[in-house]
Amino acid sequence: MIDFRCCSALALACCALAGAAPQDAEPAKLAKPEIIVGPVSVYTFSPPESFVKVNADDVSLAQILGDLGPDAIEWYQHVQTLSNPWFEGRVPGSEGIEHAANYIQFWMEQRGLEPAFENASDRGATAWRQKFELPGGQPKELAVGLKFDGADVAKGEVATLKCSASGDVTAPLAFCGYGIADGKDGYSNFAEGEDLAGRIVIVFRAEPLREDGKSAWGEDGRFTPASSLRKKLDALAERNAAGIIVVEPPNYAGKKSDLAALPIGQLGGARAMPCVVLDAEIAGSMLSAADPEHRSLAAFRALADSADAKTIRFPETATATLTTSMDDGKLLTENIGGILRGKGTLADEWIVIGAHYDHVGYGNYGADAENRGEVHPGADDNASGTAGMLLLTKQLSEAYEAMGDDANLRSILFLAFSAEEVGLNGSRAFIKSPSIPADKLDFMLNLDMIGRLRSNELEVGGVGSAEGFMEKLRPFFEASALTIRADPSGRGPSDHANFYGAGIPVLFFFTGVHESYHKPGDKGYTVTPQGAKKVLDLAGKIAMWRAIETDRLVFESATNSDGTTRGQDRGYAAVRLGVQPGMTEDGTVGVKVEGVSEGTSAADAGIKEGDVLLSWNGDELASSGVMMEKLRAAKVGDKVEIRLVRDGHEETVTVTLKAGKPRA
After folding, report:
1. 395-417 per-position pLDDT tens digit
2. Buried-state track 453-470, b at ≥16 Cβ within 10 A, e below 16
3. Residue 567 falls within a domain, yes or no?
4. What is the number of structural domains in the chain?
5. What tens digit of pLDDT does each residue of 586-612 get?
6. Residue 174 is part of which domain span?
7. The domain spanning residue 51 has which CATH number?
8. In this predicted structure, what is the pLDDT of residue 98?
9. Are strands 129-133 and 332-340 parallel, antiparallel or unpaired?
10. How many CB atoms lie within 10 A of CB 628?
11. Same domain (yes/no): 315, 353
């Protein structure tokens, strides 16, 4: 038997995974390895295809996979399974992602791993799972009803706002125009000391209109911040309205957004009364019946458009019953974790190997609008990384067993993250509540989109996240037969970024974007098992090196405070906003501004630290990833309306986008 204690850690890592003793103290090197050190944009890294075309009639897939070996076959099978449409694109909250979680847990159990969360408060079968609430979860309407003068309003004509309380209110009606407390030139729909207690209020969306249905207050008919639905709800809540019914005014020519679909954060959070949207024709009939003068909806709009528009209280006999039932809006999802227990003096130190297993479902976010409603299988993103993580549970478990009981090996935590696609939420939840001591964590290896290796080019991010890391990694890179794009930064739009932000060295493996990224075409047949085998061979050998090496890695930041690599711009987009994005508190939407760089587009527009950016030209900014998508689609000189919250108040700023300039 080979005495592994006589081997160097570098050679030992290679031989333990290969199942053979090293022949030399150092691994063999390629004649001309290519290692390119410098910033890499994950949004544009897309190596060219380099495959040889063959006659499909003459090719045996079984022989190809057989020649690649059992590990490539297993990896390929995992990808095919996880990207099956039955998993519904693995979106958080779906049955499909629960099936995927069960699949991952099954294989962790098969490998003999220990559950990672057995000491959590929810024990037993959930010991493999770390549950967390997904920020931005939206309340759902369970039931809604509206009666006027004892008769039911037609179903389908009324819908609940996501900020609505559950309730059953019977009260007389009032009409509050546009629900504006302090408008242009002293305009107000409320008298001083107005109290709407005991009244269900009908209110128009928008603000006073011109004849053509556009704003009478904004330049060129554009709507001003006074039209904010959130502000209307605030004004009515402050005046104790018992219920709120929002109606579109006649001939309204503004944006036809679905108010019932607006996220709760954009509406100012949960309200204390039922809040609904009602069809204009039904609302007009109600108002005409309640009004002693029987005026039309158009006549009520004319009153609201006038300078003397005040609240109208209808007779006590003109009563409505508003009934709403909402769920709590909490969306729970889970990380799945398993432990390969270490040995000897290093057993209490840790390595994390992670991959996110969620994707974008039916494309309702993070995907092209034209593809919404179609299942997005997510084979490369990120069934490929999840499959790689599962394969490494097998390879490393076998390597650990081969090392014998007297070996010294770090423990490895294998983690499958959920909710990466909506803001790296799974990894953030783990960093907030880790199941292992953070001060004992040597490094984190993240596998995200490793299924489409082309031209033998692999991006490895984070090579500057520990002191001397790049030079320690160089022999592995040279022996890999791959062209390595070695990015010093440990930041980026994937789960390793949260570990890096917590001061933990990281590596990020990525084979590049392609034409199927976040599209329905990201199917299992498009991945390349021969490429994944090369990528995972490198990942496994690095993991074994860190498992054996007695000296801990020492964290070193390779990035500036705004996420750019020291000395260079990362080039994610042609334009730069100039904010350092952060995370909002759980349960809220938007992008929190942690800092603003001087002389940038954001600074010029008056955006400040602490602001929360809600929308970009009317489109919700659900995460910093969505904001980056907007920036990549923009060009220098574009004017963007950004709606934000500052000190509890909502406002809109206009940002003129500047070019992203390289740093000296």
Report:
1. 999 999 999 899 999 999 999 99
2. bbeebbbbbbbbbbeebb
3. no
4. 3
5. 445 678 887 788 889 999 999 998 898
6. 141-326
7. 3.40.630.10
8. 96
9. antiparallel
10. 17
11. no
